[in-house]
Give the backbone structure.
Amino acid sequence: MYETILVGTDGSASANRAVVHALEQAEQTGATLHALFVVDTDKYGEPALSSAEILTTEAEDWGQEQLAEVTERATGLDIEVVTRCCHGVPHEKIIGYADEVDADLVVLGYQGQSHADEDQLGSVTDRVVRNVGRPVLVV
């Protein structure tokens, strides 16, 4: 059913649940799993000054740790996995990457790291659902 699954992660509890579901779907269907972490340039900016560079580097390191965990779990399940850490506006990068790899399914957490209202869909997830033009599983 699925050949290519994209999961976006930011390390939040909701994103970690999304990773679990994406791994289950990939294992059941034999799909390649693509895991994406976006360093939010609206939040961190692009490094130009030393303090911004430190924050961006910390965000990149966190992202690489999250992607390494996905890779470890996928490898343990014999799932082919591709990871990418990039900079930009998260919903735009997720949509662009989904198009680039022609994802059959996009899996996202209900809310990300910065979301405070537990009863409301996160803004990144909401924007992806509204604009990606392909199936999305919100966990």
